[in-house]
Amino acid sequence: MRGPELTTGRLLLRRWRDGDREPFAALNGDPEVMEHFPSLQDRATSDGMVERIEATFDEHGFGLWAVALRESGEFLGFTGLQPVTFEASFSPTTEIGWRFARHAWGHGYATEAARAALAFGFDELGLGEIVAMTAWSNERSMAVMRRLGMRRDPAADFEHPRIPEGSPVRPHVLYRLGAADWRTA
To answer: 6-184 belongs to which homologous superfamily?
Structure first.
């Protein structure tokens, strides 16, 4: 199963290709891109992430799409949906997430791609709610969440169980968007 491709005015959200692995590893090894994550990723760890993303597509029919410019095909990063697989006050649910190469920042790509992923989640999958989460210090991602119409739920902020205790990026904020709010936005 290849899974759906999504298009926007400028972007193609598609399944991963072998040619995406090198630029993806480069962005995962960029200290500025990974500032709000526990550590940088080496090539093997980055490739393992691609394998897990593809397995999610195969299992659920959706996942974290590779994002490329429609005009040139240039790989920019990822945006998509994934099931929350750890126990939290807000799970089970589906999360939207994104990560882009530094050269792709400031162009509105994350917001544009995320809107397409949200539309797919609400309109095609029939989800009732989609959440987004990030380290409390990641103002760039929180700004995207707000542009998408998501609202922070301070009561659901949490310590991410997959990040070691004591890490400055373990405290996370949670944003929510319900299907009804999406449709009226």
So the answer is: Gcn5-related N-acetyltransferase (GNAT) (3.40.630.30)
pLDDT at 1 over 60: no
- What is the DSSP annotation of 49-118? HHHHHHHHHHHHS--EEEEEETTT--EEEEEEEEE--S--TT-S-EEEEEEE-GGGTTSSHHHHHHHHHH
Domain limits, the chain: 6-184
* CA dihedral over 69, 125, 130, 34, signed as positive or negative: negative
Residues 145, 16, 53, 91, Cα dihedral to 10°:
30
**Is the C-alpha dihedral spanning 125, 132, 142, 64 positive or negative?**
negative
Instruction: Describe the crossing of helices 21-28 and 43-60 by its angle, rounded to 10 degrees.
Output: 120
Residue 185 has pLDDT above 90, yes or no: no
In contact, 174 and 156? CB cutoff 8 Å: yes
CA distance 106 to 93: 29
Whether the model pTM is above 0.90: yes
Q: Which of the four pLDDT bands, split at 50, 70 and 90, describes residue 161?
A: very high
